Amino acid sequence: MQISNDEFRSYQPLLFSLGYRMLGSIAETEDVVQDTFLQAYQVDERKVENKKAYLCKMMTNRCLDVLKSSRVKREQYIGPWNPEPLLLTESGDENPADRLLQKEGLSIAYLRMMEHLTPEERAVLLLRDVFEFSHGEAAEIVGKKSDACRKIYSRAKKKILDVEEENLPYEKNRSIVNHFIRAFQNNDREALLKLVSENVTLYSDGGGKVRVAIKPVVTSARVIPFLFSIGKNVPDDFYYEIRNVNGQPALVNFMNGGMQSIVSFFVVEDEIQEVYITMNPEKLPVE
After folding, report:
1. Where is the signal peptide (predicted)?
2. Sheet harboring 248-255: ordered strands across?
């Protein structure tokens, strides 16, 4: 199948966007995108009616294979598993990749919930809700009949808590994160309790490579002291930036000459419901 330079520039962000949402890993997604294009060049073009749909089908099938093969690896992962944070430009309109990635279905909260789905359910839900393929098109991509695809989609919607990402306004949530930082810096526990849900859950991902809590920390009575205990041990060269991570404001922390962690938040109705601390060095971006 022939793919022009213009087509490559158009389809590459689409395939990366699909793959990242399915896998939650930048490195794995990049490998699968490259493999998809290499395989596509070997396909007889006379068998392809719609290049976009065909490439999405190839990408989806390869992601399904990766998910099935990595299931045991995920189960053996030390501590909570957070999706690999993805740094985006603030505006989201500088390149096609950012424009696609700014669509719904990208937040850390959404990607974590996707872990509750089977690989097929994950694929169908993304194809229908995020990439807006019809049931018939989604069925063709995953190799199912249309009725079966509808059942998979219905089952997936029932199993996953719906993160209404249109209700995750970036600027409003950035203001809440700023208030959270100020309260933390001022040791204002009363202000923190107003910002954080009583049932807040903190997931710290170190992958066994750095010391973190190996179980989720639950309730504000435990999460707030846990965060303060972390803050006591930072070196003099520590600093942070508020950056766009997976379409939401997050803390990107630096110390000892490099990036140390990324702290993301799930905010619902002006209240922090979940906190995700990613410290696994293999998951932190190299800038």
Report:
1. none
2. 87-88, 239-245, 248-255, 258-268, 271-278, 196-205, 217-218
> Is 287 a member of any domain?
no
Chosen domain end from 122, 139, 165: 165
Contact by Cβ (8 Å): 98, 64: no
Instruction: Give the chain's radius of gyration (CA, Å).
Output: 20
Percent of the chain with pLDDT over 90: 67
Judge whether residue 251 has pLDDT over 70. yes
Based on the fold, state whether residues 161 and 57 are members of the same structural domain: yes
What is the distance, to the nearest Å, from the Cα of residue 113 to the centroid of all Cα atoms in its chain? 10
Sign (positive or negative) of CA dihedral 94, 98, 104, 109: negative
DSSP bridge pairs for 258: 255
Q: Is the pLDDT assigned to residue 123 strictly greater than 90?
A: yes
CA 242 from centroid of its chain's CA atoms:
17
Can you give the pTM of this predicted structure?
Answer: 0.89
Long-range contacts of 193-196 (CB under 8 A, 24+ apart): 193/220, 193/224, 195/271, 195/272, 196/220, 196/223, 196/224, 196/271, 196/272
Same domain for 152 and 16, yes or no, is yes
Q: Identify whether 251 is part of a domain.
A: yes
The letter for the amino acid at 185 is Q
Verify that 151 and 175 share a domain, yes or no: no
Mean pLDDT, residues 149-165 taken together: 82
Q: How many CB atoms lie within 10 A of CB 101?
A: 21
Residue numbers of the domain that contains 44: 5-165
Task: Give 92's pLDDT tier (boundaries 50, 70, 90).
Answer: very low
CATH value at residue 97: 1.20.140.160
For residue 56, the cross-strand partners are none
